[in-house]
Amino acid sequence: MAFELPKLEYSYDALEPYIDARTMEIHHTKHHNGYTTKLNAAIEGTNLAGQSIEDILGNLDMNNSAVRNNGGGFYNHGLYWDVMNPNDKGRLSGDCRDAVEKAFGSYEGFKDAFSKAAGTRFGSGWAWLCVQNGGEVEVCSTPNQDNPLMPGVGCGGTPILGIDVWEHAYYLNYQNRRPDYIEAFMKIINWNEVERRYELSR
Ligand code: MN
Q1: Is 132 buried (19+), middle (13-18) or exposed (0-12) by CB count in 10 A?
Q2: Is 13 inside a domain boundary?
Q3: Fewest beta carbons less than 10 Å away: which of 31, 74, 80, 85?
Q4: Do 149 and 75 contact (CB within 8 A), yes or no?
Q5: CA of 105 to the centre of ligand 1 (A)
Q6: Is the Cβ–Cβ distance between 131 and 157 less than 8 Å?
Q7: What is the pLDDT of residues 120-171, one digit of tens each?
Q8: Separation of 165 CA from ligand 1 center, angstroms?
Q9: How far apart are the CA of 98 and the centre of ligand 1, in A?
Q10: What is the rounded distance in angstroms from the CA atom of residue 13 to the CA atom of residue 118?
């Protein structure tokens, strides 16, 4: 069973004015679709075919650049669409909130750490909020399409929130103003989904 490009649960214009429709459409139908197609080509006929994406990335041979780049791209974008929400964004709450406050002192402390990780990632990559086995949360960033599920990458936890800081994620609307895009992203986080992933992964 090949991987399929996931459908978005909202329309391409649903995140405006924070993320514009044209960026969303190109990002989903071109970039994410490309990673999906190339991942399927890379694993076809190998022992990776039929495994879950989490298993593929967790046991990844980091020298396998086709699976590393396209498997990462497939997984990362699926998470990214899910942790944004135009309507019912919810609020950071429950055990996830407790873990964030323990790690960063407050929501503002978390926001500063996450924004800094996203803003200082040189070139293309991602910033993450991850949960470790004991339930502690950490912020890290990774280059290209790497993510912390991969062996030895980032903080090594399970990502529960991620922001794409490749220029293709924001350039049409924000040009070089990555900090403005990061600030906008913080306003459209689907905290209900982050919390759901926290409870699943802790
Ligand atoms: Mn992207």
Answers
A1: middle
A2: no
A3: 31
A4: yes
A5: 30
A6: yes
A7: 999 999 999 999 999 999 999 999 999 999 999 999 999 999 999 999 999 9
A8: 7
A9: 30
A10: 24
Residue 79 CB partners (closer than 8 Å, separation 6+)? 159, 162
Which CATH number is 185's domain given?
A: 3.55.40.20
- Residue 8 sits at the vertex; the CA angle it makes with 25 and 77, to the nearest 5 degrees, is 75
Q: Which residue has the tokens 């909202």?
A: 10
Helix (H, G, I), strand (E, B) or coil at 179: helix
**Cα(103) to centroid of ligand 1, in Å?**
28
Can you give the pTM of this predicted structure?
0.97
> Does 2 map to a domain?
no
Q: How many helices (H) and strands (E) does the chain have?
A: 9, 3
Report the separation in Å between the CA atom of 93 and the middle of ligand 1, taken as the mean of its atom positions: 28
Q: How far is CA 91 from CA 21, 34, 117, 160, 201, in A?
A: 25, 33, 22, 15, 19
CA of 104 to the centre of ligand 1 (A): 27
| pLDDT tens per residue across span 18-32 | 999 999 999 999 999
Domain that holds residue 167: 20-202
11 part of a folded domain? no
Does residue 103 fall inside a structural domain? Answer: yes
The CA-based angle 65-69-75, given to 5 degrees, is 140
d(CA 142, ligand 1 centre) in Å: 13
- Number of structural domains (the chain) is 1
Q: Please give the share of the chain, as a percent, with pLDDT higher than 90.
A: 95
